[in-house]
């Protein structure tokens, strides 16, 4: 495969990283595998990204931008938490590789150990996303950022259950999951 410019190569490397990194547990894939899939030399990856950690960080940023765009557009269309939750689920259903990668590397998940990326995630979220979600109120004393992380984690995890077909993707399932996330388990009443 030939590439017209550096951006094409970077894009291919990032999308391949997202796909491969989502197939394995965290850090159980290699730049050699990425290079092989992209049909480039492994040195090209290091020339463009300098390290595997930088490549992962750029892949996280790529997904974060796409998720932010999805959520901001959903709030412009309908400024309710429910609409944003379903928009994120639909985004992940359309981008399954992004979902798998996010489960392993999204800074909103506690197992993620890159503090510098988490600090960027928090700062960037507050700057770019929070202004669009001003109508979403949280209880006094509750951190809006912690609520945001919870929202992202739960929507990402729920999307994974739909992708893996562990839950049926229907209106009742979606409504139940949204209500559990938004209102807590007090909403859930077994039949």
Please describe what this structure looks like.
- With 191 residues, the protein is an all-alpha fold.
- The protein has one domain (6-187): Orthogonal Bundle (Tetracycline Repressor, domain 2), CATH 1.10.357.
- The protein has helices at 6-21, 31-38, 42-49, 52-77, 81-94, 96-105, 115-129, 144-163, 171-183.
- Helix 1 (6-21) packs across helix 4 (52-77).
- The chain is globular, with a radius of gyration of 18 Å.
- The termini are far apart.
Globular, elongated, flat, extended or rod-shaped: what is the shape? globular
Strand content: under 5%
Topology pattern, helix = H, strand = E: HHHHHHHHH
Residues in helix, %:
55-70%
CA-atom Rg in angstroms: 18 Å
Keywords:
191 residues; mainly alpha; Tetracycline Repressor, domain 2; 0% strand; disordered N terminus
Task: Describe the SSE topology.
Layout: H1 6-21, H2 31-38, H3 42-49, H4 52-77, H5 81-94, H6 96-105, H7 115-129, H8 144-163, H9 171-183
In short:
The protein is mostly helical and 191 residues long.
């Amino acid at each position: 495969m030939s590439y017209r410019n550096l951006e094409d190569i970077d894009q291919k490397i990032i999308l391949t990283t997202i796909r491969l990194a989502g197939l394995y547990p965290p850090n159980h894939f290699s730049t050699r595998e990425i290079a092989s899939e992209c049909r480039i030399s492994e040195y090209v990856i290091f020339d463009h990204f300098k390290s595997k950690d930088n490549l992962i960080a750029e892949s996280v940023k790529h997904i974060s931008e796409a998720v932010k765009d999805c959520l901001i557009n959903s709030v412009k269309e309908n400024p309710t938490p429910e609409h944003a939750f379903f928009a994120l689920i639909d985004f992940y259903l359309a981008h399954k590789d992004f979902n798998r990668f996010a489960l392993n590397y999204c800074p909103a998940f506690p197992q993620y150990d890159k503090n510098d990326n988490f600090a960027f995630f928090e700062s960037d979220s507050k700057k770019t996303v929070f202004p669009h979600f001003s109508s979403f109120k949280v209880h006094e004393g509750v951190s809006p950022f912690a609520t945001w992380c919870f929202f992202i984690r739960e929507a990402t995890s729920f999307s994974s259950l739909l992708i893996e077909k562990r839950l049926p993707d229907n209106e009742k399932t979606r409504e139940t999951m949204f209500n559990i996330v938004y209102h807590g388990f007090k909403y859930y009443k077994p039949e």
